[in-house]
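User: structure tokens for this one?
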Amino acid sequence: MQKLNTEEITRISLDEFKNTAKIPLVVVLDNVRSLHNVGAVFRTADAYLVEKICLCGITAVPPNAEIHKSALGAEFSVDWQYFSDTLDAVKYLKDSGFTLLAIEQAQNSTLLNEFQPEKDKKYAVILGNEVFGVQQSVINECAACLELPQFGTKHSLNVSVTAGIVIWEFFAHR
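Assistant:
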């Protein structure tokens, strides 16, 4: 088995990406402060054909050199929109027919591995600030909370790692 070099790995062009059907998933970043996390979410969203990212509150927006370091150009391929208030993004997405799911540890949350997305629904997943998580006012507007099962001593994962797991689960179910 021989590892492939960059030239041997075929990828679609930016124009082809823009014209490729996306999965019916929007990722909402609720006051995510790390530009590296933002970039990593862009890169994962590109890899798994996410429809759009909503950047909210203090979350930085492209163009930004620090986002680019981890996005590696995905900030140009993945559609994004900025909202100064996450609740405005939530209202926009609800009005657009999306089912809102906060990714958060909460009472009566559903474990991600037990969640089965419905094929005919559009979803928006909301990931929160690295310290405070998703705002309670935003959780109040969601249909449910999804929680990643964890078995070690820590009670959370990095937001970009969490985004990667959640995005993959939605992609794999399509």
